[in-house]
Design a protein that fits this description.
By secondary structure, the chain is mainly alpha-helical. Among the domains are: 70 residues, no CATH class; 141 residues. 67% of the residues lie in helices and 3% in strands. It is built from eleven helices and three strands. Strands 1-2-3 form a three-stranded antiparallel β-sheet. A hairpin with a 7-residue loop joins β2 and β3.
Length: 358
């Protein structure tokens, strides 16, 4: 009680913020003591429904029930039984995206791409613009779940829960043809997202070409030709080393099989019952004969030592790792430059009709 008018009989009561806070606390305690259900007056609502929205939803549900009753009387099946306001639909769409996004940029891009919803931040508060509207809806009119602090908290939790995908910073994407996508029936929200996406891709493309001093078309074509030659040369070396490693591995296997079964083959020559001995050691003799046939087919009269073969295999593996790394780097750079060239060509193809139209 701050002033006499707050407590003296006959004076007009003035409701201050402190008084309302006191009354809310008292009402909450009275309801809790009586075991009554009570809306939490002290904390915000995750999905705040105003009185106006409540009556819109109620009137809409009554109208929908009457329409469904008429359809049922006519022997037709109703397609919708629950009426949803525009804000309810907006809350569901934002929640659907918010459950999967991991950053605010990802959150805004998904909203724009999937539902055509634009999100903006002004003075530390978020506002949402659904497709078909011209006026933003502030987060406080949707609920505390959709304000900036709650959204950032949810995004942080998603980032910690989901494994981080490793992307290279210089990865170049491809431009998407906006006109072809619009002919497929995509909405205006998808077009806005696609325009933003293409601008990002072109920014990455220009940055890549400038960093490598390849803004000239002839220089770009020459660099692509050099990388293609280097790529094919590295690939040929890698394939050759893989073939030699495979042959080395097969030779080591046959040498080991021959050495382990040679004594059994010698015992067969002195066995009193060769047929019975051969049947008893069929697996060893089969491996011995296969190894001997392999050596004969490859003109090997003197078998190399296993240690020498292992050292040769290790050397081949080391050379392959070196050339494979060179092959992989060349391939990545070649793909990036080819994509950049394609993006530039696509960008100018889209710009020509626009300039003609202007």
């Amino acid at each position: 009680m701050q002033k006499p008018r707050d407590w003296r009989e006959g004076m007009k009561h003035s409701s201050t913020a402190q008084t309302m806070r006191h009354l809310r606390v008292e009402v909450m305690e009275l309801c809790e003591d009586a075991g009554l259900y009570q809306i939490d007056l002290l904390n915000g609502s995750k999905e705040r429904v105003s009185e106006a929205e409540y009556w819109v939803r109620r009137r809409g549900q009554l109208k929908l029930d009457r329409e469904n009753a008429a359809l049922l009387a006519a022997g037709q099946q109703s397609t919708q039984t629950k009426f949803e306001t525009a804000k309810e639909i907006l809350r569901k769409q934002i929640s659907d995206v918010l459950d999967n996004a991991t950053s605010f940029e990802d959150f805004s891009d998904r909203l724009l791409q999937q539902y055509g919803i634009t999100v903006k931040e002004s003075r530390g508060r978020l506002s949402y613009l659904p497709a078909g509207r011209t006026k933003f809806i502030r987060a406080k009119h949707l609920g505390d779940k959709f304000d900036k602090a709650a959204v950032l908290s949810t995004l942080q939790a998603n980032t910690e829960r989901k494994p981080k995908a490793q992307f290279k910073q210089d990865t170049i994407g491809k431009l998407i043809d906006i006109q072809s996508k619009m002919t497929e029936g995509k909405g205006i929200g998808y077009k806005r997202w696609l325009t933003k996406h293409n601008l990002k891709i072109m920014a990455q493309t220009v940055k890549l070409l400038q960093e490598n001093s390849l803004t000239d078309e002839d220089a770009l074509n020459q660099r692509i030709a050099e990388l293609e030659a280097k790529y094919h040369d590295s690939l040929a070396v890698v394939k050759d080393l893989e073939g030699r490693m495979k042959a080395n591995k097969e030779l080591r296997y046959q040498v080991a099989a021959y050495a382990s079964t040679k004594s059994v083959a010698q015992q067969l020559k002195t066995a009193k019952q060769p047929a019975a001995f051969a049947e008893q050691h069929r697996a060893e003799l089969t491996a011995y004969r296969a190894a001997a046939a392999y050596f004969k087919a490859n003109d090997l009269t003197k078998l190399p030592s296993p240690k020498k073969l292992e050292a040769e295999y290790a050397q081949l593996a080391s050379e392959k790792a070196k050339f494979y790394e060179q092959y992989k780097e060349t391939k990545e750079e070649l793909l990036k430059l080819k994509t950049a060239k394609q993006n530039v060509a696509s960008f100018f193809r889209e710009e020509e009709p626009a300039q003609q139209e202007r």
